[in-house]
Amino acid sequence: MGFKMGIVGLPNVGKSTLFNALTKTAAAQAANFPFCTIEPNVGDVAVPEPRLDRLARAAGSKQIIPTRMTFVDIAGLVKGASKGEGLGNQFLANIRETDAIAQVLRCFEDDDITHVDGRIDPIADAETIETELMLADLESVEKRRANLVRKLKGNDREAQQQDRLLAEAQAMLEAGKPARLVEVPAEDAKAWKGLQLLTTKPVLYVCNVDEGAAASGNAFSEKVARMAEEQGAASVVISAQIEEEISQLDPEEAAMFLDEMGLEEAGLDRLIRAGYAMLNLETYFTVGPKEARAWTIRRGTAAPQAAGVIHGDFERGFIRAETIAFEDFVTLGGEQGAKDAGKMRVEGKTYIVKDGDVLHFLFNA
Questions:
Q1: Is 339 in contact with 266 (CB distance < 8 Å)?
Q2: For residue range 91-110, what is the model confidence (pLDDT) as tens digits?
Q3: What DSSP string describes 242-300?
Q4: In a designed cystine with 61, which of 190, 230, 284, 292 is the match (CB 3.0 to 4.6 A)?
Q5: Can you tell me whether residue 181 is helix, strand or coil?
Q6: pLDDT tens for residues 218-275?
Q7: Contact 238/214 with Cβ under 8 angstroms?
Q8: Pairing outcome for strands 41-46 and 68-73
Q9: Strand residue runs (E) in the chain
Q10: Packed helices 88-95 and 122-147: angle between N→C axes, nearest 10 degrees
């Protein structure tokens, strides 16, 4: 299980440049005019995971297979998107398919790159995006509640639950706030997710700064950080220009370039780590002579469901999981060393997988 993050923003904020850099491709045409991205470009990238190298060395694995993250570069949004302005309808349909939203905000000044509103104000840009998403959600909620009237008259319990949740979302949206602020009881979580409202998706603010501000940010990104903190959201500072340059270098050259720029890591790493935290994701590993492989699960996942990420049969026929902590695996020289030291545990169906676990599943076919 990876996750899909939609890269959204107003035109000319650096979305496509960032997408190109992250996926090391020129599939998304970057140009200085609105709507140069017409179809959503999708790119899978490997999630950086330094622990995989150490596991592979300990086990003598021939191949390393990281988990993947999907980025979707979505057409630029403008005011009126909720009413179909620009490429609004297409934008809104594409964003529904993502797990999270990365709002790219322009935090740099450049007279050669025109801002669609003629000014540099990342807070206003974020408000424009949020407003359009809320208006789209409100219209959707009103239509869906109207369509439920007949079922409600027949005392349909599922319709009653749906209408109750939609009513709560509507009240929040009419108050000018995103639906993600609704407090949803655990028993309603599945139905709530099924509503697929745009403003229930977690948001990560990506501050696109110039090269000189990549290490420490600037006044624009500081404003965004304060806004994110007030919302309980996250923000990262990235220079799409630097990321594009890094994407053309080999790993050794990239490391030297980052060091020269005063950066400890590439923006991609920060973006993925922030996305993982936002979606409560973590990683477990399967390791053997053939391959060392990373798998993504949500925090709190039980062993059978973690096994199901590999194959449904693993979950259905789950018997037990042989488990070794990452540090024990690498410091004791792999699986056999961990076994000899008594560090391999046998866990059952109720075991909650921990980040970094090295697992071997036993199951009935």
A1: no
A2: 677 778 888 999 999 998 87
A3: HHHHHTTS-HHHHHHHHHHTT-SS-HHHHHHHHHHHHTTEEEEEEE-SSEEEEEEEETT
A4: 292
A5: helix
A6: 999 999 999 999 988 999 999 998 988 888 888 888 889 888 888 888 888 888 888 8
A7: yes
A8: antiparallel
A9: 4-8, 41-46, 63-65, 68-73, 100-106, 203-208, 234-238, 281-287, 291-298, 318-324, 345-347, 358-363
A10: 80
